[in-house]
Amino acid sequence: MHNNQMVLLHGFIKKTEKTPKQELALANARKRNL
Predict the structure, then answer these.
(1) Per-residue model confidence as pLDDT tens digits over 1-34
(2) Is the Cβ–Cβ distance between 9 and 30 less than 8 Å?
(3) What is the pLDDT, as a whole number, of residue 1?
(4) Which residues are CB-contacts of 27 (< 8 A; sequence separation ≥ 6)?
(5) What's the confidence (pLDDT) of residue 29?
(6) pTM beyond 0.70, yes or no
(7) At 8, phi and psi to the nearest 5?
(8) What is the rounded distance in angstroms from the CA atom of residue 11 to the CA atom of residue 27?
(9) How far apart are the C-alpha atoms of 27 and 6, rounded to whole Å?
(10) Residues 11-33 as b or e (16 or more Cβ within 10 Å = b)
């Protein structure tokens, strides 16, 4: 939540149960840039 709003950082189609590390790293990098 950012200023009482949700911010979508990254979206992808998940094909397995485990989230790929590359996708998590990209989302975390975008979060740090907020």
Answers:
(1) 557 888 787 788 888 899 889 988 998 898 898 7
(2) yes
(3) 52
(4) 9, 10
(5) 92
(6) no
(7) -80, 115
(8) 9
(9) 14
(10) eeeeeeeeeeeeeeeebeeeeee
